[in-house]
Write a structure and sequence with these properties.
heterotrimer, A mainly alpha (about 325), B mainly alpha (about 300), C alpha/beta (about 575), B: about 300 residues, mainly alpha, 11 helices, C: about 575 residues, alpha/beta, Rossmann fold, 2 domains, 6-stranded mixed sheet, 19 helices, disordered C terminus
């Protein structure tokens, strides 16, 4: 590179006045500052992908460990309730109805004389199964529809967005109540399916918005200039970069679906009575609310802790994946 | 502006048609006969069933049924229910108390949600913020009916501050507790939304520039931070009117209020499909209307999209 | 338009008028300033021991790259440090008063009234929900304006008119989004000077604007502050601009003042190694095309088989564009209504093999649209793009796919041009994989080779884009573009977002690669200063049309069109360049 040298023109007629106090020519010692290191690549640290970065951020948060522990325990209880209690939740003895806590029965008995502790443990399964099923369906359906609408645009977008609007116009719980009230064969799968049918719109809208902004990135244009096909670009570049908000929303949605399932069961139109569920048990406890409110608190507590666990995890994940909080 | 309004109104029509068709189809196109289940264990005589079918156009092809139903919606004449009452009248009786309940809940969630959200957002990362976040999560995680029961036990029975149930023709005081319960979840969302929005706006360039101009901190907070943060919050609140009305089904059940929720629940239990569809249609209309209102509010609050 | 600016706003006390201040007493004196930020990994010292003096009515400029602490220093004067920033030591004396640790009310009183500010980005510094007039009113009221409503309205219109906004009364009733960038910046300047401060902090006041607009606004700002006797503290990354607008320069690097003194002295005789490099790299001060070491004969030519320094004749055409036109339909507010917008209008040019053609224009000139058509990313409305003698539009899909290998782009934004989910290795390997080049092993060899080519360590390939700096990412983007051994590279504002020194490095790299690989560059830019450093031929575009087209030397030495002259004139520091001893 040639050194530029200047001889000022135009203003050269006026001689430079002597600098005023405090404005004399000053030069810092040359050794400081590390000029050579302007643009060096760090070679010692391990490389960090965005996911690894997010993981490093998350594991520093106590909230992550609290919610993570809750989720692990709840999932364990849901999968193997027998590990946590040896009492059959359906073995009830009316004679023992509303008896208080005692040895072997830490929570006491409900109005039908069933062991509350056992029912609380076994109730986890219904909530987790419905929540996970509904969330999976919603993520698959919503992501597909949102991604196609956002990425392909034009009439795909027009039609899919109108369909989304139509489903969005029916509130989740209202729609689910109407359908479940006329359903004949109520199963966990059906409940999850109905919740998914009315619950996918939010995720579709989020995906569409994210895809719209990701597809304007220059790395997408660069892939196009390589001759990469549209579908390939969508799968390889656009979708992975749209994943963060979808994951965050999915954890929150999981909690919401668990609440919705409990609401349906509470109304008596969710899971059938022979399935042990927290919503159903809360509903059953309703009659004794003035005399024995505590029998209601156990299933309600289980429900709250589970949902809280997923929601808190959603908060932590959102903070960790927030592009604004990322370094550089 | 007028074109914007016109375009939005036009967009509402297909959404309304689609949503009602969807609901109608889900209720009437399901396997099984809605009429055969009536009349309890014994069922109704064949002749009576036929008569009911004719009365509700159930003997017509599905699409005709739907169009006739739609005519009813447009002319505000939903016909009579299985017990012979005018459905329009049933709706007219049910709505006022639900509207009152929803509006009360709206005010509660707006005042407390925005208030706490503003404080939390201004001091993001502080103790108040952390507490507000956990409390709001708690409200989101605990189902409405549990909040309702706990409030009944604590505020109603133990403390005796407010009536435990509302009953018929409830007054303002007896609707207070149901309104709080109904507002609980949305309150949490409003709080979180306000907080995020305030925190984001606090670091916006124009807020810094406003301070550089010499504005006092209170002026900057009110005129710039809060004013701009309210845009997403107000749109949320607008859309929430519709959600609150349909969410009232649980709250009304708990507090024994004879509003839309109670009536709907009643109709569901009795298997009166036509009443269910009619009530739901009106709720969906309210919901769509609220979302339309939100779009207009948005345009009023944010000059950038006024002529878009 | 008025050039007389009333010094008093009617009720300000005469003492506060800047003219009264003693011209021989420093207005602002910063001594040994220390500023640090608290981050997750601990304290970060953003400013270390900065010294700075401004006299009344004087123009002083702080020059530095991003991260040098220049804006932080300025923000600390009016206590507006972002986030966790805190002054941890030193003193800031303003007009005889200590500002470090001053109570909030005192600082608030100073802001606007004694010290005004013109911020960097006009797009984000006006509140979008309030009318322009309201935001001016706010500033006036906060700083003690006590007139009637009518007087206030008149004053608001005056403020905007002074800032050079015609039809000020109507403008005051508009919202920011109805203003262009230049108009917004004028409004911000009007607000900054509305209460007649003694000092105006101008933080990169025009870096977001087109060069011609930038010049007009800086001229106007200069006139206003001169007439009002306001001292100005410029914050800028552009040495040329600083030297042109200020008599005293303060050069900052990594939080420290490395050199300060009279502007002309620093420019003519820089002492600190950093300043020397800065002066050498500033594109606005350069006047000749970069001549790589090979050409100037410092490195032996026999390293390369082909003749270096002798460019192939221009008749050897790599890309030939003829009568290229692109019309976009803009949907109107009413349904069905639409207007045609001609983004590129009958543009013809030829890119010679092994040469660099610069497509120059301001925002909206259609230069990027034209580039996208050359890249085959956009279908032309009419006209042809010929690549190596073949009309690109006649290619069948298979041929079109193969054609992609021969022409590759590098984009502006070093943060958006690499997929953040892909490791550097995957990013560079992707083109090879897609076009089925070689085995896994040979591809890895090629990636290593490419990293060498762009002077990055091979270990960088395991990293992810977020771990690299802007300049490094741009090197990766260049490596990816070169992976398939293309003949033509389209550089769309490829160096515009980079700091001066990094920009100079990348330009050197590009030139070296061109010489080594015989590449042809289509260089899209808004920055004429860079053009002189890299291009052989220039096409000047305005509003979609070609205004002037010639060799670089001709355009710079003998511009034929007024618009080209305006552009040249607008290069900051252009007239500071005298005799340059070329290589």
């Amino acid at each position: 590179m040639p050194e530029n040298r200047y001889e000022p023109v135009g203003r050269s007629a006026t001689p430079t006045p002597a600098p005023r106090p405090g404005q004399e020519h000053f030069t810092a010692p040359a050794d400081e500052g590390g000029l050579g290191a302007v643009d060096a690549v760090a070679t010692d640290e391990t490389p960090t992908s965005l996911w690894r970065d997010a993981w490093h951020q998350m594991r520093r948060r106590p909230l992550f460990w609290v919610s993570g522990t809750v989720i692990v325990i709840v999932v364990l209880v849901a999968a193997f309730p027998g590990l946590f209690t040896s009492i059959d939740p359906r073995a009830c003895d009316l004679a023992r109805a509303l008896e208080g806590p005692q040895a072997g029965h830490p929570f006491g008995f409900d109005r039908q004389g069933c062991d509350i502790y056992s029912r609380t443990m076994y109730g986890a399964r219904a909530s987790v199964v419905v929540g996970v099923l509904a969330t999976s369906m919603v993520v698959i359906l919503g992501t597909t529809i949102g991604a196609i609408a956002g990425y392909y645009g034009k009439w795909f977008d027009t039609i899919l967005s109108r369909i989304t609007d139509i489903f969005f116009a029916i509130p989740l719980v209202l729609g689910a109540i109407v359908i479940m009230s006329i359903a004949t064969n109520r199963t966990s799968f059906l409940v999850a399916f109905v919740l998914a049918v009315f619950g996918w719109t939010q995720i579709a809208r989020i995906t569409r918005g994210t895809v719209l902004s990701v597809k304007n990135n220059e790395f997408v244009t660069a892939a196009k200039s390589l001759g990469m096909g549209r579908g390939q670009i969508l799968v390889r570049h656009v979708l992975p970069n749209s994943a963060a908000p979808i994951i965050v929303y999915a954890t929150v949605a999981l909690g919401q679906f668990i609440v919705a399932e409990a609401t349906l069961s509470f109304l008596g139109i969710g899971l059938p009575p022979d399935v042990v569920s927290w919503g159903g048990d809360i509903s059953a406890a309703q009659g004794a609310i003035r005399t024995d409110p505590e029998i209601l608190l156990y299933p309600a507590g289980g429900l709250a802790v589970t949902v809280l666990g997923f929601m808190m995890m959603g908060d932590v994940v959102r903070d960790a994946l927030d592009p604004k909080a990322r370094k550089r | 502006m007028l074109w914007y309004l016109g375009r939005r109104l036009l967009q509402v029509i297909p959404v309304f048609l689609g949503a009602t068709l969807l609901l109608y189809a889900l209720v009437f196109l399901r396997p099984g006969d809605p009429i055969a289940g009536l009349g309890g264990e014994r069922g109704l005589p064949e002749a009576v069933q036929e008569q009911i079918r004719a009365q509700y156009n159930l003997d017509q092809p599905f699409i005709i049924q739907y169009l006739l139903f739609l005519r009813g919606v447009v002319t505000l004449d939903f016909g009579v229910d299985f017990r012979g009452r005018e459905i329009t009248e049933v709706i007219a009786n049910a709505f006022p108390v639900t509207i009152q309940l929803a509006l009360m809940a709206l005010v509660i969630e707006a005042v407390f949600g925005i208030g706490f959200g503003l404080v939390a957002g201004m001091r993001k990362g502080g103790i108040f913020d952390a507490t507000a976040l956990v409390v709001s999560l708690f409200f989101i995680a605990v189902p409405t009916f549990v909040v309702g029961f706990v409030m009944q036990i604590v505020v109603g029975v133990r403390l005796g501050w407010l009536p435990v149930t509302a009953g018929r023709d409830p007054d303002f005081v007896s609707l207070l507790m149901p309104a709080m319960v109904l507002a609980a979840v949305s309150f949490a969302y409003v709080l979180r939304l306000t907080r995020t929005s305030v925190a984001e706006n606090l670091s916006a360039d124009y807020v810094r520039t406003a301070r550089a101009r010499g504005l006092r901190r209170s002026q900057v907070t009110g005129r710039h931070v809060l004013r701009n943060s309210l845009i997403p919050v107000v749109t949320f609140l607008g859309a929430d009117i519709g959600a609150l009305m349909s969410g009232a089904i649980i709250t009304e059940g708990i507090f024994n209020i004879n509003g839309v929720g109670g009536t709907l629940y009643d109709a569901i239990i009795r298997g009166e499909s036509i009443t269910v569809v009619s009530l739901t249609t009106v709720l969906v209309l309210v919901y769509i209307g609220a979302n339309l209102l939100v779009d207009l509010l948005y345009a009023a609050l944010d000059p950038r999209i006024r002529y878009a | 338009m008025t050039t007389q600016f009333p010094v008093s706003d009617g009720n300000a006390t005469p003492e506060s008028a800047p003219a009264v201040a003693d011209p021989n007493k420093p207005l602002l004196e910063i001594r040994d300033l220390q500023i640090s930020f608290t981050t997750g990994v601990g304290e970060v010292h953003a400013v270390r021991g900065a010294n700075l003096t401004v006299y009344p009515g004087q123009n002083v400029a702080i020059v530095g790259e991003s991260g040098s602490g220049k804006s932080t220093t300025a923000a600390s004067i009016i206590d507006l440090l972002p986030g966790t920033g805190k002054v941890t030591g030193g003193s800031i004396m303003f007009d005889g008063r200590e500002l470090v640790g001053a109570p909030r009310a005192e600082t608030e009183a100073l802001r606007g009234r004694a010290i005004g500010m013109v911020p960097q980005d006009p797009m984000s510094n006006l509140n979008p929900v309030w009318r322009i007039g309201t935001q001016v009113t706010e500033a006036l009221k906060a700083n003690g304006f006590k007139g009637s409503k009518a007087e206030l309205r008149t004053r608001v219109a005056d403020v905007l008119a002074e800032a050079g906004l015609p039809d000020a009364e109507r403008r005051a009733r508009q919202y920011p989004h109805e203003f262009s960038g230049g108009m917004r910046q004028r409004a911000l300047i009007g607000i900054g000077l509305a209460s007649r401060p003694q000092l105006l902090i101008a933080d990169e006041p025009t870096s977001a604007l087109d060069v011609t607009v930038q010049r007009q606004i800086l001229d106007h700002l200069g006139d206003m502050t001169r007439d009002l006797g306001t001292a100005v503290l410029f914050i800028t990354h552009d040495l040329g601009l600083a030297a042109e607008r200020a008599e005293h320069l303060v050069v900052m690097f990594k939080g420290q003042v490395v050199e300060s003194g009279p502007a002309q002295q620093i420019l003519a005789d820089p002492q600190h190694p950093y300043t020397k490099r800065l002066v050498a790299s500033a594109p606005s001060l350069a006047s000749r095309r970069i001549q790589t070491a090979h050409v100037s004969g410092q490195e032996s030519a026999e390293l390369h088989a082909h003749h270096l320094g002798e460019k192939p004749p221009a008749s050897n055409e790599a890309v030939k564009v003829e009568h290229l036109t692109k019309v976009f339909q803009i949907r109107g507010a009413r349904p069905g209504s639409s207007t045609d917008f001609t983004a590129v209008d009958d543009v013809s040019f030829t890119l010679g093999r092994g040469r660099t053609l610069a497509l120059v224009g301001e925002s909206g000139s259609g230069k990027s649209t034209a580039a996208n058509m050359v890249l085959g990313l956009l279908e032309p409305t009419s006209g042809t793009v010929e690549f190596d003698g073949t009309d690109v539009s006649t290619l069948n899909p298979k041929q079109a796919f193969a054609f992609r290998r021969r022409i590759q782009p590098v984009f502006q934004n070093p943060y958006g041009s690499l997929d953040p989910m892909f490791s550097i290795y995957r990013s560079i390997e992707e083109p090879l994989k897609l076009h089925n080049v070689g085995s896994k092993k040979s591809r890895e060899k090629r990636v290593r080779e490419l990293l060498d080519m762009v002077s990055l360590p091979q270990s960088a390939m395991r990293r992810f884009p977020n771990e690299l700096s802007g300049g490094q990412r741009q090197r990766i983007a260049i490596a990816r573009a070169l992976a398939l051994k293309p003949e033509v590279v389209v550089l769309d504002e490829a160096v515009s977002a980079l700091d001066v020194l990094v920009q100079a490095q990348i330009l050197d790299l590009l030139d070296e690669l061109q010489t080594d690989l015989g590449l042809s560059y289509l260089f899209i830019t808004h920055d004429l200063a860079v053009v002189r450093q890299i291009a052989d031929d220039v096409v000047v575009m305005q509003n979609g049309k070609v205004v002037e087209q010639a060799t670089t030397d001709e355009v710079f030495d003998n511009p034929r069109q007024q618009y080209t002259r305006d552009l040249l004139e607008a290069i900051p520091g252009a007239h500071l360049v005298g005799n340059v001893a070329g290589g």
